[in-house]
Amino acid sequence: MRAESARRKRKIIVVTFGGGARDQETFAPQGQENIPNMMKELIPQSSFFTHVTNQGILGHYVATASLTTGTYETLNNFSAVPPDHPTVFEYFRKDLHRPPTDAWVVAPSNGFNRIGESNCSSYGQGLGAAVILPKHLLAAASSGSKANIDHLLRDNYENPLYTPQLSGNEFQLSQLERVLRLSVDDFTAHARTLSSPDELSLYIARRLMEQEAPGLLWITMHDIDIAHSGAYSLYMDGIRRTDRLCYELWQAVQQNPEYAGNTTMFILPDFGRDSDYDSGGNGFQHHRTGDIASRTTWMMALGVGIRPGMIYDDPIQSVDLVPSLGAILGFDAVQSSGKPIKELL
Amino acid sequence: MLPRDLQPEQFAAYPPQARQLAVAHIDLFRQLPISFLPSMLRQVIEYDDKFPAERQSIDAELGVLSRLSSSDLLQRFQAFANLSIPSKLENYDWVNHPAQFVEQQSAYLWSTHQLDNFRKAATEYGEQLQAALPPVQLPARRLGIAIVGQGVEASSTPLFRNLRPHGTFFNQVIPQNGLAQLFDAVTARAKSFPSPYAHWVVEGGALPATRAPGVTCVSYDGLEPVRSALLNFIQGQIQRPGMGPEELRTRLAELTPADLGISSTSDQVLSRFQVKVLTEGSGTQIFSTTFAQWTAREALRRAQALTLLVHFTPRQRQLPMNEMLSNAVPHPTLDPAGSLVDADMGAYYNWINQQRLPGAQDSAFIAWFEGHAQAVVIAPTLPRGVVSTSAMTLTQLVQLALA
Hints:
Shape of chain A: globular
CATH architecture of chain A: 3-Layer(aba) Sandwich
Shape of chain B: globular
Oligomer: heterodimer
CATH superfamily of chain A: Alkaline Phosphatase, subunit A
Mean pLDDT of chain A: 90
Strand content of chain B: 5-15%
Number of helices of chain A: 11
Number of strands of chain B: 10
Structural class of chain A: alpha/beta
Distance between the termini of chain B: 56 Å
Largest sheet of chain A: 9 strands, mixed
Strand order of the largest sheet of chain B: 5-4-6-1-7-8-2-9
Mean pLDDT of chain B: 94
Number of domains of chain A: 1
CATH topology of chain A: Alkaline Phosphatase, subunit A
CATH class of chain A: Alpha Beta
Strand content of chain A: 5-15%
Number of strands of chain A: 9
Radius of gyration of chain A: 18 Å
Low-confidence stretches of chain A: none
Radius of gyration of chain B: 23 Å
Order of helices and strands of chain B: HHHHHHHHHEEEHEEHHHHEHHEEEEH
Largest interface: A-B, 39 and 47 residues
């Protein structure tokens, strides 16, 4: 009975440290200076997996969709289509009989609006997560007056021209007040104090935690993908900012009574970026070659049920995350091609 | 259609020299797998607008393959032949649109988890080809120069951290007149070893009014009208209903120098190179540092520059992408400090790209913090990973690198 109660209270937060960061600018020795918060504050509390491979397509939407389904999806990265396989949100809600308010996605780019639920016939419509696209929300909230917020509306550098038509279970502007208890004016006013799209995402995520306290919260960071512009300094700025935001999110967890002591948080890049030495690429700028550097990354797990201070070097795959969450929370990710990570159980 | 069905008349739309080359090698082409041949045709179809070094590479590759027996060819391309290619792609007009075929094939290989096999096959093919080619004799040691940090008073982080392990770090460089000394070094080499497109200056700002003879010059500021025309074109395309990333890429690939306002009397090989830098390089249209790095990469990869000087200058500060793409800010604020970080990494990439070329073991490279006393020099005669406190001018550093 007590175990069941604890399981009902259990919260899971997944943060994708994105989009696309290499080991050499993060946890490799030469990169650790870029992630001081994770190094000093988070890693001592964490189980750290040094070798996470992504064998799928290295586009941000399709790779993040693959992370959510635990299966390497093959959808067109630049199309607003749902994943083919059930998402973690659908397993979570259907198997555990959780309400719609218990699973949320906060995603940076308009392209991610269909990531909340699949088109799988036995799961799918009505069983997924609500998706908030903070930039879309901000653009709608401030329509006609974009003064001082353009810097928050930067979109996908992987293809800056892509803005798909929105459809699916995305969050509607009218829900700002009803769900987040935020007036449009307060939302836009606060947004003006922020410096990047990911800061806006964190703001929304914290608001969600305060108002809805979802059991499963998925946050996709994206500032790092400015690397596609070829400006290394901006890529590094993105990494440092994401490091800070991850720490601030963990602090928010500790300060929220619904989450403190009940939460397990996972932080992982969706994939890496091309090696400096692969002639088919241009180093950090893209993730097009499929080389080892672009396919290999890391994962940090911390919080309830996690052994702190552990470092695991055995290879795991990014699709192993969803079945691991299933093993932790008590659902069966039946269509996932991954397997539970034993060190998390 | 498969390669074995190729007929000479199918190359009718190729430019004259490309057509001649393709028809001359049609028997070879017929024996190559469809997963490989369009990649080769992608090079062949642009033969007329290629740099001399590129033409030599294509000729040499075709020569190597033409000397192989049918059974050797079968064996050499077995890994490519093992890849599954859908009939939709086989039926695509890959003879006349090889670049688009390659792009679609790449997407297909990703989605069917065959990309790693393709990479492996391509890598092995490249290694076998390199082994079969005769060694290249350069007229002089290849020299790369990167000038970084214009407008920065002091760097907050150590510079050249990636390059220092490979060469000697000088911290007492005499900076006075350094820029002119380095430009003079390029001019002198162009005079001593004249060859078309062998000596390059890639300028992140504006080029000096007087051009050195024999030096190929490309500048970010000089291409401002072309960049504006391109950004206007992109804006126009974005507004069109149904426009997506694939369609836009195809449209960009079809742009000619004339489409972007480059005079037909200008050097067409160089003009096409510049258009490709701007249409294929991500970020080259908006950031001068990215432009300089990518142009240098392409000058090395394609023209195999014997001398390459890259002058990084401050790029515009980051703005929302839409604003940068719309080119709406006529005089954007600059970001010298961020540009120094970009250029430091760009210099490292320049050196890596230089090391991919023939004569890498004997090549030399200089990276200098403009206006300051710090430089790193990489040369076969200099120790690696050490610091020199010798007071040296830039001219002396060049002499040292080439000694």
